[in-house]
Each structure stands twice: as structure tokens, then as C-alpha cells.
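target protein:
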Amino acid sequence: MDGPKGINWESALEFYLTPDPEGRIPSYQDVADKFGVSKSEVGLRAKNENWLQRRRNLYDLAEETFVENRVELINQTIARHIKTWRTIQDLASNLLNKLDQSFTENGYRSWDVKELTFLAGILKTAIEGERTALGLPNTVSSANIQVPKQEVTLPPELIQEIDRLFEINSRPALVN
């Protein structure tokens, strides 16, 4: 739609809403200079057509889209990492099974310990990698659980009965 002086206000609005290649956002003065009108004319038109709110809406939408794309990229990366770590775990597990079969068939050999240690290290790294990708901790802290001391007092009769049972159980068994 053309306004006074043949200005294409739709193009002016599009110019106002689009950052330049350096990311600078055009001002009302930039629109006025580009389209050959006064800054006050641009300001009046912008007020009537709510240009500021339209710019905010556009940038809110762009930010929302950016965040959604970033979240999707992170999710894809995490899924890829988990798949990789699980593949490594599967391979190491298969090698452990072959090593176990070798132990069973051929008995123990000194180089088997080195191979077992190496595979254990690979599995540990793969499990830690998977846990990290899932956002789980890789270490477990001690619980520091303290059990309160309890005094147990037995009546003298019960203590005598326990002593008697110990005495009976400690006697040599009679052979028939």
C-alpha cells in the first residue's frame, strides 16, 4: 500500500523489522533516510500500525525458534552420545564373554589379566560417558548413616539359660 509521496509502507516496515548484515536493528531515522520521509512521519505510521510490538513479536518468535532448535540439537547430540557409549559397552561385553570362554576352555593365562583390566577400564569409561550424557552422577557419596547405640540389658535368668545352652553345646557328643 502506497502512502504520501508514493512510499511503500510495507517495504518500510519490512526494512524496520530486518537487521542489517552486521545485526544492527534499523531505527525510525534509518527508515526515514532510506524511504525519503521525515522521522516524524515514520514515527506516526509506526504508532498507528504498532511497529514496535510487531518487532517484539518477531524477535520473540525468533528467540523461541532458536531455543527450540537448540533443545532439539542438544537432544540429538545426547541420543548420539548414548548410542555410542552403549555400542562401546556392547563391544566390551562381547570381548568379556570371549575372554570368559577362553578361561573356561584353556584355563588361566597371565596375559588374560591384562586384557581383563583393559576391558574393565573401557567399560568404566563407557558407563561414565553414558551416565554423563543422561545427566546422572558418576560418583556415589558415602551416606554417613549413624546408628544410635543401644544398651541391651538381659535379665540374669536369661543369661544363665544362655550360658547353660553354650555349656551343653560344647560337651563332646556321645557316640552310640
The two ends are 121 Å apart (CA to CA). Residues 51-106 form the longest helix (56 residues).
